[in-house]
Specification:
Elements: E1 4-11, H1 22-37, E2 46-50, H2 65-71, E3 78-81, H3 87-101, E4 107-114, H4 124-131, H5 142-157, H6 161-175, H7 189-194, E5 197-199, E6 202-203, E7 212-221, E8 233-242, H8 261-274, H9 279-282, E9 285-287, H10 293-302, H11 311-316, H12 333-337, H13 341-356, E10 370-377, E11 382-389
Parallel strand pairs: 2-3, 2-4, 9-10
Antiparallel strand pairs: 1-7, 1-8, 4-7, 5-6, 8-11, 10-11
């Protein structure tokens, strides 16, 4: 399988961007990435647009045309990708496969979401209830779903509320070092635990904010990299899995509510492609999908960073904090950066690539050579795992 190189990256500020339109965000992220790659927009041979929820607010992102228009990027194939929170990772996967197939020589993957331009009554929860599964979606909320997992892991492995909320404390500290993050304010454990309850034991500060933003990567085949001009970061493995449907795992009598099969399957695929056998030793930093604090905790085990029941020990030993043995979400994660759904997976790749280029400033992970990103979406059904390296 041919190695794919990322030669250009761009990301907007994440936040309540009422002063910027969907098109503005597309242009901002794309121009950064094109400039970083030192190419012309006319060099792009195919593009993938990741927008998960065009039905909300701005009604943009329903087709590839919504990428073409703001960039005047015409007469090439442009595909819109939607796969819940894993949409950005899927856009990158499709772009990489097109390069390997020889369909194009330069590919763009751009993710963008405008979630703040709507009234509170038009929430993602309302949209899912009205447009999701006619029976299984009723009463389903993301917070409620992950709260079930939180309670189960607390019962089974002795995880405490303090353990879960300490993830938010860690990631909000990291967020203070990231000028592109939505929230850049540190918080205490008490502030997280005493913030309003959303779904016991998850509080408001255990939950990521609703956010606008965009991110973009430019990719080529590794043999096409100009090493004097580019700072390439290589894609060594991509795993993507849809492991359950709407009725799973909640109606599966064998499911233990301690793990997500989609994450495990995607990670296995990515590790095999990248030749990773001991992730805790071979990976230098990870961006995981901390839409709620508990999801990061569960993901430690699903990615094989530790044995079942030992995730809390990584937290208590500060191993996943900047400076620890396996820093996780040094960008601030979704908890600080926010979660413009279509953009998040590509924003994570931007973050890891920045560290592999040694350009992350105050939050730089020292001597970073290999990094990984993870997204999970839907009812815990869809997962993307991407492994990146600064070595061919």
């Amino acid at each position: 399988m041919k190695d794919i190189a990322i030669i250009g990256i761009g990301v907007t500020k994440f936040g309540e961007l009422f002063h910027q339109s969907y098109d503005d965000l597309v242009r901002d992220a794309a121009i950064q990435a094109i400039s970083d790659a030192q190419i012309s927009i006319d060099d792009i041979g195919a593009a993938w647009l990741s927008t998960a929820f065009p039905e909300i607010g701005v009604y943009k992102g329903r087709s590839g045309m919504d990428l073409c228009e703001p960039l005047s990027l015409y007469n090439i194939p442009v595909t819109r990708v939607s796969n819940y929170c894993a949409s950005g990772g899927d856009a990158i996967r499709n772009a990489a496969n097109a390069l390997r197939a020889g369909e194009c020589d330069v590919a763009m993957a751009l993710g963008v979401e405008k979630l703040r331009d709507r009234q509170p009554q038009d929430s993602i929860v309302k949209m899912m209830v009205e447009y999701g599964h006619p029976y299984l979606q009723k009463g389903f909320t993301a917070a409620g779903t992950f709260a079930v997992y939180a309670n189960r892991i607390m019962h089974e492995y002795g995880v405490t509320r303090e353990d879960i909320s300490s993830i938010s404390v860690k990631n909000h500290f990291h967020g203070t070092l990231n000028h592109k993050a939505h929230h850049r304010i540190a918080c205490s454990l008490e502030e997280v635990m005493t913030s309003p309850m959303v779904a016991n034991p998850l509080t408001v500060m255990d939950s990521c904010p609703t956010t606008d933003g965009a991110a973009c990567v430019i990719m080529v085949r590794a043999e096409d990299v100009d090493k004097l001009k580019h700072k390439p970061v290589y894609i060594k493995g991509i795993g993507f899995s849809i492991s359950t449907g709407w009725d799973m795992p909640f109606f599966d009598p064998n499911h233990n509510f301690l793990s997500f099969e989609a994450t495990r399957k995607a990670a296995q695929t990515a590790y095999k492609q990248a030749g990773i056998t001991k992730p805790i030793e071979e990976i230098d930093l990870i961006e995981v999908h901390d839409c709620f604090s508990i999801v990061e905790l569960l993901t430690y085990e699903d990615l094989g960073l530790c044995k079942p029941g030992e995730a809390k020990d990584l937290l208590r030993g500060n191993e996943t904090k900047l400076g620890g043995s396996i820093p996780v979400n040094v960008s601030g994660g979704l908890l600080s950066c926010g979660h413009p759904v279509g953009a998040t997976g590509i924003r994570m790749v931007h973050e890891v690539a920045t560290h592999l280029r040694n350009n992350a400033g105050e939050r730089q992970v020292k001597n970073a050579q290999t990094g990984m990103t993870h997204n999970i979406g839907g009812p815990g059904a869809i997962a993307s795992v991407i492994i990146l390296s600064n070595q061919i």
